[in-house]
């Protein structure tokens, strides 16, 4: 089973790069078990997806279409959350 991890970001957010880095590090640990998708809310499609999930702030990480973290989690938090869904 592949777990979908979406990282919602914006270009003006100073904290978003940390969330992207953690997601990419998690991908290295999890390999093919995780599909990491970076969703910049600057695009209309990603903005609508964020709205549909009830996201009010960036960075936010959604796992399998449910908000899991607001802000950048620690690597072990993200990895453990994904592993719990595999």
Give a concise summary.
The chain is an alpha+beta fold and 86 residues long. Strands 2-1-3-4 form a 4-stranded mixed β-sheet. β3 and β4 form a beta hairpin.
Keywords:
3 helices, four-stranded mixed beta sheet, alpha+beta, 86 residues
Describe the structure.
The chain is an alpha+beta fold and 86 residues long. It has helices at residues 16-30, 44-52, 75-85, and strands at 3-9, 34-40, 60-63, 66-70. Strands 2-1-3-4 form a four-stranded mixed sheet. A hairpin with a 2-residue loop joins strand 3 and strand 4 (66-70).
Please write out the topology.
Elements: E1 3-9, H1 16-30, E2 34-40, H2 44-52, E3 60-63, E4 66-70, H3 75-85
Parallel strand pairs: 1-2
Antiparallel strand pairs: 1-3, 3-4
- In helices, the fraction of residues equals 40-55%
Terminus-to-terminus distance: 6 Å
Structural class: alpha+beta
Poorly predicted regions: none
Radius of gyration: 12 Å
């Amino acid at each position: 089973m592949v777990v979908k991890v979406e990282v919602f970001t914006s270009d003006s957010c100073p904290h978003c790069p940390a969330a992207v880095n953690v997601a990419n590090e998690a991908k290295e640990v999890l390999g093919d078990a995780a599909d990491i998708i970076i969703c910049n809310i600057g695009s209309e499609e990603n903005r609508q997806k964020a709205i549909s999930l009830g996201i009010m702030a960036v960075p936010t990480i959604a796992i399998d279409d449910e908000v899991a973290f607001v802000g950048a989690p620690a690597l072990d938090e993200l990895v453990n959350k994904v592993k719990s869904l595999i």
